[in-house]
Known about the structure:
15 helices; seven-stranded parallel beta sheet; single chain
Amino acid sequence: xxxxxxxxxxxxxxxxxxxxxxxxxxxxxxxxxxxxxxxxxxxxxxxxxxxxxxxxxxxxxxxxxxxxxxxxxxxxxxxxxxxxxxxxxxxxxxxxxxxxxxxxxxxxxxxxxxxxxxxxxxxxxxxxxxxxxxxxxxxxxxxxxxxxxxxxxxxxxxxxxxxxxxxxxxxxxxxxxxxxxxxxxxxxxxxxxxxxxxxxxxxxxxxxxxxxxxxxxxxxxxxxxxxxxxxxxxxxxxxxxxxxxxxxxxxxxxxxxxxxxxxxxxxxxxxxxxxxxxxxxxxxxxxxxxxxxxxxxxxxxxxxxxxxxxxxxxxxxxxxxxxxxxxxxxxxxxxxxxxxxxxxxxxxxxxxxxxxxxxxxxxxxxxxxxxxxxxxxxxxxxxxxxxxxxxxxxxxxxxxxxxxxxxxxxxxxxxxxxxxxxxxxxxxxxxxxxxxxxxxxxxxx
Length: 445
């Protein structure tokens, strides 16, 4: 038996025994997204809440997609969730005041952990089985998990043969694991949503900006899904992103994405995590086309800016007539988070021939509310200030704001608002002297 095999055997234990090493008052980083170690989490809830052993435990998480059982109000004495980005599973808990939200750029989360400004007592991870050299892969989600594992006092890893072995800066050696729990379970899956007519129209406007040889970044949702479908006539695209979904596979297989023209890590798709189905997880397994890296590297605006023709597409909740962008809250109610929007918009703006794009439907709530607004609502979090915004797209068109004055911005944004709201927006712009009174006698068209 080799030394690595002995180390592995010595640290192998049940989930019950591993979780028993966690104490009241601990701060725990929980593996995020589709890599959430569900077996370990349910054991934590069992010991902490059902057995009444643990109290005042803080669970730090980037993105919750699983069931998040620890956020149940019944367990509020035992656990308090602290999220960097709200998934729908924890949104209600934050709104009710029994969970927390920490606003921070995605690129800065690893340094927040490694610097000790957010010290960690433990980390719960899910990793692939070790290779013959003793290295496990973080699999489909590296983001801040690597930094958490390097920073925490106690590292508990669920070794799951269903976890792909992804390449890049995505490995942890068994010597760094304090507790090893073998448990096979299906990874959480998140199929990309089907595009609708609005998202297809928005994607059509954006796709016109994507030149052959561009490097793209996008996320998950109807607009990103529609955009990927709209790029089938492009050639030589590259990908530098934080996350990607199943839609990328068809573009690779058809020769649209080759990464040959990339000027930063040419030939490689750079990402920090992916959200998708088993098809995607099998596709990235041991695939040298993909490099998974932590967000302090991958979402660094300086690294993003090294991609010539970088096109960053990010979604917003609302944009006001001066160009301010809100992406994280509906008034005072936190809806999601900062994420990588600011990192990628600024990185693309710095890139040679880069194109930073904000995309949003023109309305919400079945067309009853405009997302192009006179001013951001009270309490809204400003993700991008006026000077950061370049392109804005809705289903009614695409406009360019950078270097434009307030009059030009208001005129441009009114032109891509839903026709039902243009008169209202024009009246506001006139009243507040954004545009002269004689302009736009009737804004509807």
